[in-house]
Amino acid sequence: MLASPFVRHYVAGVDASWDIVDLLRASPTGLVLPITGMFRERARRDVEAALVEARASELDAVTQELAMRAAELDAAIEGLTAALPAAERAAAAAQAALDAVAARGAAGLVRHADVEIARTMTRKASLREHTLRRQIEGNAAHEVGARTDKTWVRSEPHGGRLSVARPRRPSGHATPGFIERALAPGPLTTPAATCTAMPMPPVLELSGMALRLGGRDVLAGVSFSVEAGEIVVVIGPNGAGKTLLLELVVGARPLQAGQVLGRGVPLTGLATRAGLLAWVADEARPTAEMRVVQLLAEAARIGGAPAQLRELIIAQLALGPHLRARAGVLSRGERHRVAIAEAMLLRRPLTVLDEPLAAFDPLQRAAACELLRGLAREGHALLMTVHEMHAAEHIADRIILLHEGRVLAQGPLAALRASAGRETGDLEDIFVALLNRSRDAA
Amino acid sequence: MRRELVLVFGARVTWGVAALVAAVVGHSFVLAVDLYGQASASVAAGSLAAREFEPLLAILRPTIGGWSFCATLIGPVLAARVLAAEKDRRTFHARLLALGSAPRLLARKALAAWLGLLLLAAPIVVCALAWLAAGGHLDVRESCVVLLGVALHAGWIAAVSTAAAAWSASTPQATALALLLSVSPWILDAAGEFAALAWLGPVQRLSISPHLAGFERAVLQPGAVAWLVLAWLGALVLACIGARDDWTRGRRGASAVLVCVATLATLLAADRWRGGWDLSEAQHSSLPRSIALAVEALPSPLVLDIGLDRDDARRAQLEQDVVLRLELVRPDLVVRFPLDGAASSAGVRGGDYGRILVQVGDRAVETFSTSRRELITLLFEAAQRPMPAWEYPPYAGHPQVLGGGARSAVAVVVYLLIPLLLGAVALTKPGERAR
Q: Is residue B45 part of a domain?
């Protein structure tokens, strides 16, 4: 959060006084140092006073916003609670119908396909009921958070700005913080710990994905899933089919075989895909003619991202100095950061990224990884391809090793180690070992 | 929409092209002014009637011709770029997913492309204003109808260019395809100029040109407007299909064929919608009022069998003059060209060539003249009704000779000022860093 103009004015004054001190230190006289030291101390005291004042006013504003949110959530809970009994009845009726159909199916009176249809309908009814429960629980958790969040908001001078610190909470804590909830994709996405009624279907589920191009099977039988809050990284040698796989997932290519489910629903149309995922292609170059601030504002408007999230992403991806620049004049890495920021601001449950870390220097990569991990902690799922093994190892919850269009191994790093028959070693060693073994076997 | 507008108006190429087009349009305008001035001098000598001097046809139409030429050849480059640039930058699919609706995104892109093409048409307005400032005459109402034709033409180019870009993978592909679609009416129009292309005759009405002809004479034809709007819509639906990368080739192809067939059917239906309103000054694009009322009262059917080849200049003159004027009062007029069906017109050119059969009710008379007055007279003769007195509409004409100083000022504005201004705007736009 930016400091008030008053604070900025004083920070500028302090900067100027330090410049003067440096200048006088370098001067041959050196006699006026005590005077400039006094000037510097006074300026510092003024800044601190101004910061305290700004902090108080910001806390007021945050408190008001939280109170408003709590009231909105109260109303939402009432509405959802009223709808719950009907959903429960529908789920029970569907289950009874399923039992009856299944019994007839077992007796050979009903076709297997009909049983499957009934099963699907039952699952949808249960899902509806479960969704309502989750919304109620999520809203209740948000409401508690809204009432207590003000204690988590603290401000501190940092580079001439006020920042809102993220509260540290243990994994699985039911009450997310204010900023963390700003990162959440929507009211449906609450921390997994709040969900106890029924396991949700995976955010993304691929089964039997296959693709044939130019008479060659470039993908064959690829199946895996991505859970909410999980970072799944696809690695593999060049030409393994990583990008093609992601393009199939986002609908940039027609699906030839297999199935892509999003939250248990087949992703067949643009609208269903758009509701679930955001996409950042490899080497994506945001609209060159637009300023970065305009691009981010548009994405935030579409995704309904709050200003805090925008500020956080801008800070984390170090886009602050480039906000007024046109995207066309940015470097490759900077443009890629803008593209990632746009995707994040859309706040979709799943973000698919093709080589998101390729154009970054080590510092930027670390910051981007931190941002992505933070988003995952809040329930966002991420599916990405990564070429740098060290980065993949650092960021992935689960790694999928793709080779010649097939999944060679998948799982957390430890599982991959086990697959490779190694007790130690980094991902690069495992990668080489698994590929060599595959080639030897071939 | 903001992004699309920035893509068009924030790009250096748009303003650079606009500067180029401004110079061409300005050149067309200055040539038209010079010719008009030379001919107007004949009025003083008494060799030509002032009534024949229409700034609409002699000044505005050639100026628009310059724009039309540029819009057809350069317009697709700008229009296709609005979508193709995002494909090049690998952000198009991400935007589709962000918005969640292909029609919404493509309609925005087509609209932005259309506004970009209208920017190219801005020099026409400047030329018209320069003409008025130099003492020339232009009727506001008829000029608006002509500019409406320009806007509809620009919309058509924008729509087909968007469709071309949606079906292409990159800017070069999109530009090439959009250019092909944009100049395709010229190929169809050529069918009306060369007997060798007579086999294209049946599809000649699918060219955009016949539907824009009325606007050039300030005749507002709802059928032409409907035809153009349907053509836009068809192109946009095709664009939506082209943008669906998640569809298989077969599905996209079959959908495109279906849309093409449906669009052609609706275009043909719209083409049958004749008639319109003459919004020209003193209605000088219509028949004289008394004649028009009398023709309206003639019995049906009203048929013209015109025995002229496609490449005969008299035929084009007939279509743009007598037929257009008759259709304004008698939308049920049937015009037939018997020689179009002949396998080889060369063999048919005998004694009957050039015969025009005028049929009213069950009586017919024939002539070899293409004169407007002669044909109208024959209509009444065939109907065995007296023809009212032929009175020209009260259109005085506006001969105008632009003097040395005024001409120089106009030339400076349209040759230098406007192109330089647009060029300067282009220079303020940043380029894109390659890496």
A: yes
Residue B373 maps to which CATH number?
3.40.30
Q: Using 50, 70 and 90 to split pLDDT, how confident is the model at A147?
A: very low
Query: Is B167 found in the same domain as B109?
Result: yes
Chain-chain contact of A278 with B94 (C-beta, under 8 angstroms): yes
B238: pLDDT strictly greater than 90: yes
Does residue B395 lie in a domain region? no
How many CB atoms neighbour CB B386 within 10 A? 9
Going by the DSSP 8-state scheme, the letter that residue B346 receives in this structure is H
B229 domain-assigned? yes
Asked if B1 is an interface residue toward chain A (Cβ–Cβ < 8 A), one would say no
Residues of chain B with Cβ-Cβ distance to A326 below 8 Å are: 10, 430
Q: What residue type is assigned to position A177 of the chain? A: G
* B298, B364: one domain: yes
DSSP structural state of residue B184:
H
On whether any CB of chain B is under 8 Å from the CB of A390, the answer is no
- Do B165 and B297 lie in one domain? The reply is no
- Each residue's pLDDT tens digit, A374-389: 888 888 899 999 888 8
Question: How do residues B367-406 score in pLDDT, each as one tens digit?
Answer: 888 888 888 898 898 888 888 888 776 777 787 777 778 8
Q: Coil, helix or strand for A382?
A: strand
> Exposure pattern of A189-209 as b/e (b: 16+ CB <10 Å)?
bbbbebbeeeebbbbbbbeeb
Same structural domain, B293 and B272: no
| Phi, psi dihedrals of residue A160, rounded to the nearest 5° | 80, 10
Mutate to test the interface with A, among B170, B246, B248 (most CBs of A within 10 A): B246
Nearest to A415 by CA among A428, A403, A430, A429: A430
B86, closest residue in chain A (CA to CA):
A287
CB of A392 within 8 A of CB of A383? no
For residue A41, count other CB atoms closer than 10 A to its CB: 11
B433 touches chain A (CB under 8 A): yes
Does residue B154 sit in the same domain as residue B267? yes
Q: What is the pLDDT of residues B67-105, one digit of tens each?
A: 999 999 999 999 999 999 999 989 999 999 999 889 999
CA distance A261 to A204: 6
Phi, psi of B124 (to 5 degrees): -60, -45
Q: Answer for the pair B67, B120: CB distance below 8 angstroms, yes or no.
A: yes
- Give CA–CA dist B158/B165, Å, rounded: 10
Check CB contact of B430 with chain A, cutoff 8 Å: yes
What is the domain extent for residue B314? 289-383
d(CA B121, CA B127): 10
Contact call for A251 and B430, based on CB within 8 A: no
Q: Are residues B346 and B424 in the same domain?
A: no
User: In Å, how far are A126, A127, A188, A232, A406 from A122, measured between CA atoms?
Assistant: 6, 8, 21, 30, 34
φ, ψ at A439 (rounded to 5°): -70, -40
CA distance B296 to B379: 11
**Percent of chain A having pLDDT more than 70?**
62
- Do residues B209 and B65 share a domain? yes
Q: Does the predicted model carry a pTM greater than 0.90? A: no
Residue from the list A287, A330, A339 with its beta carbon closest to the beta carbon of B7? A287
In angstroms, what separates the C-alpha of B114 from chain A's closest C-alpha?
A: 18
Return the SS3 of A254. coil
Asked if the Cβ–Cβ distance from A281 to B93 is below 8 Å, we say yes
Q: Which of B3, B94, B100 sits opposite A279 (nearest CB)?
A: B94
Same domain, B317 and B376: yes
Do the domain assignments include residue B398? Answer: no
Total domains, chain B: 2
d(CA A104, CA B406): 96
With contact defined as beta carbons under 8 Å apart, do A349 and A381 qualify? yes
First to last CA, chain A: 57
The enclosing H or E element of B13 equals: helix B12-45
